[in-house]
Design goal:
Layout: E1 2-6, H1 10-22, E2 26-30, H2 33-39, E3 46-50, E4 52-53, E5 56-57, H3 58-68, E6 73-77, H4 82-90, E7 95-98, H5 103-118, H6 120-124, E8 135-138, E9 141-144, E10 149-152, E11 155-156, H7 161-171, E12 178-179, H8 180-188, H9 193-210, E13 216-219, E14 223-226
Parallel strand pairs: 1-2, 1-3, 3-6, 6-7
Antiparallel strand pairs: 4-5, 8-9, 9-10, 10-11, 12-14, 13-14
């Protein structure tokens, strides 16, 4: 796997490239937005993106990459606030890792993201609900399972693959609680603790994008369910 490391700090970038190299990754390094865009080609399998860059914002770079390419993007930053993580996912990042992080978790997240994207949207798509319900209305959020579209007041809501897959799994049993472990298994094909945190961030992203917090209800200690009204 070839990884483009976008990091302006020479010391941090050097350590990252050495670490990735020891784990069998090929690496290229960009110190900022301009270099990253210049080096991004079809040979890049994953972008490891720091948000604090000298010639632009990492969020903007993420959006520019996503507008033209479907390459996996893992953001890394010291910004731990949930709002920043949700914003990054809105822009198309596949995962978000807060510094300082353990090297083992970084490698695991990168491999997981690459595996998910490489499996293709068709493989990642959950099976259709067993019943005939193809369109659901949850508190004004219209979920069309047949078209795989979500709208609010006839306005399309742009969800990522994982956000849409999350709604599809929940929609298999409208109003019933789906355990966290099942969601992780179906949407992320994993039960790792770090993916459990990613689940929470994706739920927050769906709520934020639709503007309807109750579209996904939290059942504390158990899991989530589609809203009941």
């Amino acid at each position: 796997m070839r990884v483009l490391v976008v990091e302006d700090d020479d010391r941090v970038a050097g350590a990252l490239c050495d670490l990735l190299g020891r784990h069998g990754f090929a690496t290229a390094r960009a110190a900022g937005v301009t270099q990253a865009l210049a080096q991004l080609d079809d040979a890049v399998d994953l972008v490891l993106l720091d948000l604090m860059l000298p010639d632009g914002d990492g969020f903007d770079l993420c959006a520019r990459i996503r507008a033209s390419r479907d390459v996996p993007i893992v953001m890394t930053t010291a910004r731990s606030d949930l709002r920043w993580r949700v914003h990054g996912l809105h822009l198309g990042a596949d995962d978000y890792l807060v510094k300082p992080y353990d090297a083992r978790e970084l490698i695991a997240r990168m491999l997981a993201v690459h595996r998910r994207v490489a499996s293709g949207a068709r493989a990642a798509r959950p099976p259709a609900p067993a019943d005939d319900v193809r369109v659901l209305d949850v508190g004004g959020v219209r979920i069309d399972l047949g078209r795989r579209e979500v709208t609010v007041a006839d306005r399309p809501v742009a969800l990522t693959r994982k956000e849409l897959a999350l709604l599809e799994v929940l929609a298999e049993h409208p109003g019933l609680v789906v355990r966290r472990e099942r969601l992780l298994s179906r949407v992320w094909r994993s039960a790792h603790e770090f993916d459990a945190h990613t689940l929470d961030v994706h739920v927050a992203a769906v709520r934020s994008k639709t503007g309807v917090r109750s579209v996904i209800e939290t059942v504390r200690g158990v899991g989530y369910r589609l809203g009941t009204g």
